[in-house]
Amino acid sequence: MLKRFVSTLALAAAIAVGPAQAQDVKIGGLFGITGPIASLVPPIVESAKLAVKHVNEQGGIGKGGKLDIVIADGQCNPQAAAAAAKKLVDVDKVAGIVGELCSGATIAAAEGSGIPTGTVMISPASTSPALTTLADKDFVFRTCPSDAFIGQTAARYLVQKRGIKVLALTYMNNDYGKGLASSFRDEFKKLGGKITADLEHNEKATSFRSELATLAKDKPPYLFVIGYANSSGPIILKQALEGGFFKKFIGSEGTRDDKVYQQIGIKNLEGMIHLVGGDPSSKALDMFNAEITKVNKDFVGKPYAPHSYDAAFMLALAIEVAGSTDRTKVRDALRRVGSIGGVVIGPGEWKKAKEAIAKKQKITYHGAAGNHVFSKEGDVSGVVDVYEIKGGKDNKIATLR
Fold first, then answer.
1. Distance between CA atoms of 47 and 85, rounded to whole angstroms?
2. I want to staple 215 with a disulfide (CB 3.0 to 4.6 A). Which of 30, 68, 197, 233 is the partner?
3. Confidence class of residue 135 from pLDDT cuts 50, 70 and 90?
4. C-alpha pair distances (Å), 104 with each of 32, 82, 213
Protein backbone atom coordinates (compact mmCIF):
# COMPACT_ATOMS: atom_id res chain seq x y z
CA MET A 1 0.00 0.00 0.00
CA LEU A 2 2.82 2.38 0.98
CA LYS A 3 4.73 1.45 -2.16
CA ARG A 4 1.67 2.25 -4.32
CA PHE A 5 1.23 5.59 -2.52
CA VAL A 6 4.87 6.53 -3.08
CA SER A 7 4.57 5.59 -6.76
CA THR A 8 1.48 7.79 -7.08
CA LEU A 9 3.33 10.73 -5.53
CA ALA A 10 6.28 10.18 -7.87
CA LEU A 11 3.97 10.16 -10.89
CA ALA A 12 2.28 13.36 -9.74
CA ALA A 13 5.64 15.02 -9.22
CA ALA A 14 6.80 13.95 -12.65
CA ILE A 15 3.70 15.47 -14.22
CA ALA A 16 4.18 18.69 -12.23
CA VAL A 17 7.76 19.22 -13.43
CA GLY A 18 7.16 17.95 -16.96
CA PRO A 19 6.98 20.11 -20.08
CA ALA A 20 4.69 23.11 -19.72
CA GLN A 21 1.46 22.82 -21.62
CA ALA A 22 0.80 25.02 -24.60
CA GLN A 23 -0.81 28.30 -23.66
CA ASP A 24 -2.98 30.16 -26.15
CA VAL A 25 -2.40 33.90 -26.38
CA LYS A 26 -4.66 36.75 -27.46
CA ILE A 27 -3.63 40.04 -29.00
CA GLY A 28 -5.99 42.85 -29.95
CA GLY A 29 -6.57 44.38 -33.35
CA LEU A 30 -8.11 47.83 -32.90
CA PHE A 31 -9.05 49.19 -36.33
CA GLY A 32 -11.38 51.83 -37.77
CA ILE A 33 -13.52 49.23 -39.51
CA THR A 34 -16.40 51.66 -39.77
CA GLY A 35 -16.12 55.43 -39.99
CA PRO A 36 -14.17 57.88 -42.15
CA ILE A 37 -11.39 55.52 -43.29
CA ALA A 38 -13.47 52.34 -43.64
CA SER A 39 -12.57 51.78 -47.29
CA LEU A 40 -8.84 51.83 -46.47
CA VAL A 41 -9.06 49.31 -43.63
CA PRO A 42 -9.64 45.81 -45.13
CA PRO A 43 -6.02 45.36 -46.36
CA ILE A 44 -4.75 46.59 -42.99
CA VAL A 45 -6.90 44.11 -41.04
CA GLU A 46 -6.05 41.20 -43.32
CA SER A 47 -2.34 41.96 -43.09
CA ALA A 48 -2.44 41.70 -39.29
CA LYS A 49 -4.38 38.45 -39.59
CA LEU A 50 -1.77 37.16 -42.04
CA ALA A 51 0.97 37.68 -39.46
CA VAL A 52 -1.05 35.68 -36.92
CA LYS A 53 -1.62 32.95 -39.53
CA HIS A 54 2.14 32.66 -40.12
CA VAL A 55 2.73 32.26 -36.38
CA ASN A 56 0.17 29.48 -36.04
CA GLU A 57 1.29 27.63 -39.17
CA GLN A 58 4.93 27.59 -38.05
CA GLY A 59 4.88 26.30 -34.49
CA GLY A 60 2.55 28.63 -32.68
CA ILE A 61 3.37 30.86 -29.75
CA GLY A 62 5.47 29.64 -26.82
CA LYS A 63 5.12 25.89 -26.32
CA GLY A 64 2.91 25.56 -29.38
CA GLY A 65 0.00 27.67 -28.20
CA LYS A 66 -2.40 29.29 -30.63
CA LEU A 67 -2.12 33.01 -31.27
CA ASP A 68 -5.49 34.70 -31.70
CA ILE A 69 -6.21 38.27 -32.76
CA VAL A 70 -9.41 39.75 -31.36
CA ILE A 71 -10.66 42.37 -33.82
CA ALA A 72 -12.41 45.45 -32.43
CA ASP A 73 -13.84 48.46 -34.23
CA GLY A 74 -12.41 51.74 -32.98
CA GLN A 75 -14.36 53.60 -35.71
CA CYS A 76 -11.49 56.09 -36.11
CA ASN A 77 -13.23 57.83 -33.23
CA PRO A 78 -11.71 58.69 -29.83
CA GLN A 79 -14.73 57.69 -27.74
CA ALA A 80 -15.40 54.45 -29.60
CA ALA A 81 -11.72 53.50 -29.64
CA ALA A 82 -11.36 54.10 -25.91
CA ALA A 83 -14.36 51.84 -25.21
CA ALA A 84 -13.14 49.13 -27.59
CA ALA A 85 -9.64 49.20 -26.09
CA LYS A 86 -11.08 48.85 -22.59
CA LYS A 87 -12.92 45.69 -23.63
CA LEU A 88 -9.82 44.24 -25.29
CA VAL A 89 -7.75 44.84 -22.15
CA ASP A 90 -10.26 44.12 -19.38
CA VAL A 91 -12.49 41.45 -20.93
CA ASP A 92 -10.45 39.77 -23.65
CA LYS A 93 -7.22 40.02 -21.62
CA VAL A 94 -5.02 40.68 -24.65
CA ALA A 95 -1.24 40.74 -24.27
CA GLY A 96 -0.93 43.78 -26.53
CA ILE A 97 -2.81 45.75 -29.17
CA VAL A 98 -2.20 46.49 -32.84
CA GLY A 99 -3.86 49.85 -33.52
CA GLU A 100 -5.73 52.12 -33.60
CA LEU A 101 -5.21 53.62 -37.05
CA CYS A 102 -6.38 57.22 -36.61
CA SER A 103 -4.18 59.33 -34.36
CA GLY A 104 -6.90 60.78 -32.15
CA ALA A 105 -8.40 57.32 -31.63
CA THR A 106 -5.00 55.85 -30.77
CA ILE A 107 -4.30 58.56 -28.21
CA ALA A 108 -7.73 58.13 -26.58
CA ALA A 109 -7.36 54.34 -26.43
CA ALA A 110 -3.87 54.65 -25.00
CA GLU A 111 -4.82 57.20 -22.36
CA GLY A 112 -8.01 55.31 -21.43
CA SER A 113 -6.66 51.76 -21.20
CA GLY A 114 -3.27 51.11 -22.76
CA ILE A 115 -1.14 53.32 -20.53
CA PRO A 116 -3.03 52.84 -17.22
CA THR A 117 -2.88 49.04 -17.54
CA GLY A 118 0.61 48.91 -19.04
CA THR A 119 -0.56 47.32 -22.29
CA VAL A 120 1.64 47.71 -25.35
CA MET A 121 -0.02 49.41 -28.32
CA ILE A 122 1.57 49.47 -31.78
CA SER A 123 -0.16 51.62 -34.37
CA PRO A 124 0.49 50.89 -38.04
CA ALA A 125 -1.00 54.17 -39.27
CA SER A 126 -1.23 56.88 -36.59
CA THR A 127 1.14 59.53 -37.88
CA SER A 128 0.38 62.58 -35.70
CA PRO A 129 3.42 64.17 -34.02
CA ALA A 130 1.29 64.23 -30.85
CA LEU A 131 2.15 60.55 -30.31
CA THR A 132 5.83 61.44 -30.02
CA THR A 133 5.25 63.60 -26.95
CA LEU A 134 2.53 61.44 -25.41
CA ALA A 135 3.25 60.59 -21.75
CA ASP A 136 2.92 56.88 -22.46
CA LYS A 137 5.37 55.25 -20.01
CA ASP A 138 6.93 53.61 -23.08
CA PHE A 139 3.85 51.55 -23.94
CA VAL A 140 2.86 53.24 -27.24
CA PHE A 141 4.78 52.53 -30.45
CA ARG A 142 4.18 52.83 -34.18
CA THR A 143 5.55 51.21 -37.32
CA CYS A 144 4.76 54.24 -39.52
CA PRO A 145 6.76 57.48 -39.64
CA SER A 146 5.51 60.62 -37.92
CA ASP A 147 3.89 63.42 -39.88
CA ALA A 148 6.74 65.59 -38.65
CA PHE A 149 8.84 63.61 -41.13
CA ILE A 150 6.15 63.18 -43.78
CA GLY A 151 5.17 66.86 -43.83
CA GLN A 152 8.72 68.15 -44.01
CA THR A 153 9.69 65.65 -46.70
CA ALA A 154 6.58 66.48 -48.73
CA ALA A 155 7.36 70.20 -48.58
CA ARG A 156 10.94 69.67 -49.75
CA TYR A 157 9.80 67.48 -52.63
CA LEU A 158 7.16 69.92 -53.87
CA VAL A 159 9.45 72.94 -53.75
CA GLN A 160 12.77 71.44 -54.74
CA LYS A 161 11.76 68.67 -57.15
CA ARG A 162 8.50 69.92 -58.63
CA GLY A 163 8.91 73.68 -58.40
CA ILE A 164 5.54 74.05 -56.65
CA LYS A 165 5.92 77.16 -54.51
CA VAL A 166 2.34 78.47 -54.33
CA LEU A 167 -0.71 76.57 -53.08
CA ALA A 168 -3.77 76.69 -50.84
CA LEU A 169 -4.08 74.30 -47.89
CA THR A 170 -7.10 72.78 -46.16
CA TYR A 171 -6.98 70.16 -43.42
CA MET A 172 -9.28 68.28 -41.07
CA ASN A 173 -9.86 69.53 -37.53
CA ASN A 174 -8.38 66.46 -35.82
CA ASP A 175 -4.99 65.35 -34.50
CA TYR A 176 -3.92 63.88 -37.82
CA GLY A 177 -4.98 66.84 -39.94
CA LYS A 178 -3.52 69.48 -37.64
CA GLY A 179 -0.26 67.60 -37.15
CA LEU A 180 0.44 67.01 -40.83
CA ALA A 181 -0.59 70.54 -41.79
CA SER A 182 1.66 72.06 -39.14
CA SER A 183 4.80 70.15 -40.14
CA PHE A 184 4.17 70.76 -43.85
CA ARG A 185 3.37 74.46 -43.39
CA ASP A 186 6.50 75.24 -41.39
CA GLU A 187 8.87 73.54 -43.83
CA PHE A 188 7.12 74.84 -46.96
CA LYS A 189 7.37 78.44 -45.79
CA LYS A 190 10.96 77.95 -44.66
CA LEU A 191 11.80 76.90 -48.22
CA GLY A 192 10.19 80.02 -49.67
CA GLY A 193 6.79 78.55 -50.44
CA LYS A 194 3.64 80.65 -50.21
CA ILE A 195 0.32 79.41 -48.83
CA THR A 196 -2.29 81.80 -50.15
CA ALA A 197 -5.08 80.44 -47.94
CA ASP A 198 -4.82 78.08 -44.98
CA LEU A 199 -8.11 76.70 -43.67
CA GLU A 200 -9.05 74.10 -41.10
CA HIS A 201 -12.30 72.32 -42.01
CA ASN A 202 -14.93 70.22 -40.27
CA GLU A 203 -14.43 66.67 -41.54
CA LYS A 204 -18.13 65.88 -40.96
CA ALA A 205 -19.49 68.73 -43.09
CA THR A 206 -21.23 67.96 -46.38
CA SER A 207 -20.56 71.21 -48.22
CA PHE A 208 -17.30 73.10 -48.54
CA ARG A 209 -18.22 75.58 -51.27
CA SER A 210 -17.77 78.68 -49.14
CA GLU A 211 -14.39 77.40 -47.91
CA LEU A 212 -13.38 76.62 -51.48
CA ALA A 213 -14.28 80.14 -52.59
CA THR A 214 -11.93 81.50 -49.93
CA LEU A 215 -9.19 79.00 -50.79
CA ALA A 216 -9.42 79.90 -54.49
CA LYS A 217 -9.62 83.68 -54.03
CA ASP A 218 -5.98 84.42 -54.94
CA LYS A 219 -5.99 81.78 -57.70
CA PRO A 220 -3.26 79.46 -56.40
CA PRO A 221 -2.45 76.70 -58.93
CA TYR A 222 -2.77 73.82 -56.42
CA LEU A 223 -5.01 72.84 -53.52
CA PHE A 224 -3.43 70.58 -50.88
CA VAL A 225 -6.24 68.50 -49.29
CA ILE A 226 -5.72 66.65 -46.02
CA GLY A 227 -8.89 64.62 -45.56
CA TYR A 228 -10.21 61.08 -45.22
CA ALA A 229 -11.66 58.97 -48.03
CA ASN A 230 -15.01 58.47 -46.28
CA SER A 231 -15.49 62.02 -45.04
CA SER A 232 -14.23 65.39 -46.26
CA GLY A 233 -11.63 64.31 -48.83
CA PRO A 234 -13.75 63.31 -51.84
CA ILE A 235 -16.40 65.96 -51.13
CA ILE A 236 -13.83 68.76 -51.27
CA LEU A 237 -12.26 67.39 -54.45
CA LYS A 238 -15.62 66.91 -56.15
CA GLN A 239 -16.97 70.35 -55.23
CA ALA A 240 -13.67 72.00 -56.19
CA LEU A 241 -13.97 70.52 -59.68
CA GLU A 242 -17.70 71.15 -60.05
CA GLY A 243 -17.37 74.79 -59.02
CA GLY A 244 -14.29 75.42 -61.10
CA PHE A 245 -12.34 76.42 -58.00
CA PHE A 246 -9.31 74.17 -58.65
CA LYS A 247 -8.02 71.78 -61.29
CA LYS A 248 -4.79 70.63 -59.67
CA PHE A 249 -4.54 68.83 -56.34
CA ILE A 250 -2.09 67.46 -53.81
CA GLY A 251 -3.27 64.93 -51.24
CA SER A 252 -2.21 62.90 -48.20
CA GLU A 253 -2.84 59.16 -47.89
CA GLY A 254 -6.46 59.74 -46.87
CA THR A 255 -7.55 60.56 -50.43
CA ARG A 256 -5.35 58.00 -52.18
CA ASP A 257 -8.17 55.47 -52.30
CA ASP A 258 -10.06 53.57 -54.97
CA LYS A 259 -13.36 54.73 -53.50
CA VAL A 260 -12.36 58.37 -54.07
CA TYR A 261 -11.27 57.63 -57.63
CA GLN A 262 -14.55 55.85 -58.37
CA GLN A 263 -16.67 58.63 -56.88
CA ILE A 264 -14.98 61.43 -58.79
CA GLY A 265 -13.60 59.59 -61.79
CA ILE A 266 -9.85 59.10 -61.71
CA LYS A 267 -9.44 60.82 -65.09
CA ASN A 268 -10.86 64.00 -63.54
CA LEU A 269 -7.97 63.93 -61.07
CA GLU A 270 -5.24 63.72 -63.71
CA GLY A 271 -1.97 65.08 -62.32
CA MET A 272 -2.96 64.76 -58.66
CA ILE A 273 0.05 64.14 -56.43
CA HIS A 274 -0.17 62.06 -53.24
CA LEU A 275 2.55 62.04 -50.59
CA VAL A 276 2.19 59.16 -48.13
CA GLY A 277 4.15 57.22 -45.55
CA GLY A 278 5.64 54.49 -47.70
CA ASP A 279 7.44 51.20 -47.88
CA PRO A 280 11.14 51.08 -48.82
CA SER A 281 11.85 48.54 -51.54
CA SER A 282 13.48 45.52 -49.95
CA LYS A 283 13.59 41.75 -49.86
CA ALA A 284 11.29 41.92 -46.82
CA LEU A 285 8.66 43.89 -48.74
CA ASP A 286 8.87 41.39 -51.59
CA MET A 287 8.33 38.56 -49.09
CA PHE A 288 5.26 40.29 -47.68
CA ASN A 289 3.83 41.08 -51.11
CA ALA A 290 4.17 37.45 -52.15
CA GLU A 291 2.19 36.36 -49.08
CA ILE A 292 -0.50 39.05 -49.14
CA THR A 293 -1.08 38.27 -52.83
CA LYS A 294 -2.32 34.85 -51.70
CA VAL A 295 -4.96 36.64 -49.60
CA ASN A 296 -5.92 39.23 -52.21
CA LYS A 297 -3.67 40.47 -55.00
CA ASP A 298 -5.39 43.86 -54.85
CA PHE A 299 -3.97 44.41 -51.36
CA VAL A 300 -0.43 44.86 -52.72
CA GLY A 301 0.62 48.49 -52.43
CA LYS A 302 -2.29 49.53 -50.21
CA PRO A 303 -1.56 52.14 -47.52
CA TYR A 304 -0.24 50.81 -44.23
CA ALA A 305 -0.85 47.13 -45.02
CA PRO A 306 2.87 46.26 -44.58
CA HIS A 307 3.01 48.38 -41.41
CA SER A 308 0.08 46.41 -39.99
CA TYR A 309 1.72 43.07 -40.73
CA ASP A 310 4.91 44.29 -39.06
CA ALA A 311 3.06 45.52 -35.97
CA ALA A 312 1.33 42.17 -35.43
CA PHE A 313 4.41 40.09 -36.22
CA MET A 314 6.62 42.19 -33.94
CA LEU A 315 4.11 41.91 -31.11
CA ALA A 316 4.17 38.12 -31.50
CA LEU A 317 7.98 38.13 -31.58
CA ALA A 318 8.05 40.22 -28.40
CA ILE A 319 5.77 37.73 -26.61
CA GLU A 320 7.99 34.87 -27.79
CA VAL A 321 11.19 36.60 -26.65
CA ALA A 322 9.63 37.55 -23.32
CA GLY A 323 8.48 33.96 -22.83
CA SER A 324 5.49 35.50 -21.15
CA THR A 325 2.38 37.58 -21.63
CA ASP A 326 3.45 39.85 -18.77
CA ARG A 327 2.80 43.23 -20.34
CA THR A 328 5.94 44.97 -19.09
CA LYS A 329 8.12 42.09 -20.26
CA VAL A 330 6.41 42.21 -23.65
CA ARG A 331 7.11 45.95 -23.90
CA ASP A 332 10.78 45.49 -23.08
CA ALA A 333 11.12 42.59 -25.54
CA LEU A 334 9.50 44.66 -28.30
CA ARG A 335 12.41 47.07 -28.23
CA ARG A 336 14.85 44.17 -28.45
CA VAL A 337 13.29 42.59 -31.54
CA GLY A 338 13.40 45.96 -33.30
CA SER A 339 17.03 46.72 -32.51
CA ILE A 340 19.93 45.86 -34.78
CA GLY A 341 22.57 43.19 -34.41
CA GLY A 342 20.88 39.78 -34.29
CA VAL A 343 19.67 36.92 -36.45
CA VAL A 344 17.75 38.61 -39.26
CA ILE A 345 14.07 37.65 -39.39
CA GLY A 346 11.86 38.63 -42.31
CA PRO A 347 8.09 38.53 -42.85
CA GLY A 348 6.78 34.96 -42.66
CA GLU A 349 9.93 33.59 -41.00
CA TRP A 350 8.37 32.61 -37.70
CA LYS A 351 9.92 29.13 -37.57
CA LYS A 352 13.37 30.65 -38.04
CA ALA A 353 12.65 33.14 -35.27
CA LYS A 354 11.43 30.46 -32.85
CA GLU A 355 14.55 28.37 -33.43
CA ALA A 356 16.83 31.34 -32.80
CA ILE A 357 14.93 32.42 -29.69
CA ALA A 358 15.01 28.85 -28.33
CA LYS A 359 18.82 28.97 -28.69
CA LYS A 360 18.87 32.26 -26.73
CA GLN A 361 20.08 34.10 -29.83
CA LYS A 362 19.27 37.77 -30.35
CA ILE A 363 16.95 38.43 -33.30
CA THR A 364 16.33 41.56 -35.35
CA TYR A 365 13.22 41.94 -37.45
CA HIS A 366 13.56 43.40 -40.94
CA GLY A 367 9.99 44.40 -41.66
CA ALA A 368 7.93 44.76 -44.80
CA ALA A 369 7.65 48.50 -44.09
CA GLY A 370 11.28 48.92 -43.01
CA ASN A 371 13.60 48.12 -40.15
CA HIS A 372 11.74 49.30 -37.07
CA VAL A 373 14.41 50.55 -34.71
CA PHE A 374 12.31 52.42 -32.15
CA SER A 375 13.42 55.77 -30.82
CA LYS A 376 13.02 56.49 -27.11
CA GLU A 377 9.57 57.90 -28.02
CA GLY A 378 8.52 54.72 -29.84
CA ASP A 379 8.90 56.30 -33.29
CA VAL A 380 10.56 54.86 -36.37
CA SER A 381 12.25 56.40 -39.37
CA GLY A 382 10.63 55.81 -42.72
CA VAL A 383 10.15 56.88 -46.29
CA VAL A 384 7.58 58.93 -48.18
CA ASP A 385 6.16 57.46 -51.36
CA VAL A 386 5.07 59.83 -54.11
CA TYR A 387 2.16 58.86 -56.37
CA GLU A 388 0.85 60.76 -59.36
CA ILE A 389 -2.26 60.10 -61.42
CA LYS A 390 -1.19 59.81 -65.03
CA GLY A 391 -3.22 58.47 -67.91
CA GLY A 392 -6.04 57.54 -65.57
CA LYS A 393 -3.77 55.41 -63.37
CA ASP A 394 -2.32 55.90 -59.90
CA ASN A 395 1.44 55.55 -60.40
CA LYS A 396 4.21 55.44 -57.83
CA ILE A 397 6.89 57.78 -59.16
CA ALA A 398 9.36 58.25 -56.30
CA THR A 399 10.40 57.18 -52.82
CA LEU A 400 11.83 59.90 -50.58
CA ARG A 401 14.04 59.35 -47.56
1. 20
2. 197
3. very high
4. 11, 10, 29
Asked whether residue 18 is domain-assigned, the answer is no
From residue 282, give the alpha-carbon distance in Å to each of 261, 285, 295.
29, 5, 20
Q: pLDDT-based confidence at 20, cuts 50/70/90?
A: low
d(CA 163, CA 147): 22
Closest Cα to residue 92, out of 111, 114, 112, 69?
69
3-state secondary structure of 265: coil
User: Would residue 401 count as lying in a domain?
Assistant: no
- Say which residues have a Cβ less than 8 Å from residue 217's Cβ, sequence separation at least 6: 196, 197
Q: What is the pLDDT of residues 185-209, one digit of tens each?
A: 999 999 999 999 999 999 999 999 9
The residue range of the domain holding 230 is 148-277
Sequence-ordered alpha helix ranges (H) in 110-190: 115-117, 147-156, 175-190
Please give the radius of gyration of the chain, using alpha carbons only, rounded to the nearest integer: 23
The CATH number covering residue 153 comes to: 3.40.50.2300
Indicate yes or no: pTM above 0.70: yes
What is the distance between the alpha carbons of residues 366 and 181, in angstroms, rounded to a whole number?
Answer: 31
Quote the pLDDT of residue 22. Answer: 86
For residue 9, name the pLDDT band (cuts at 50, 70, 90): very low
Range in 14-18, 28-32, 113-117 with the lowest mean pLDDT = 14-18
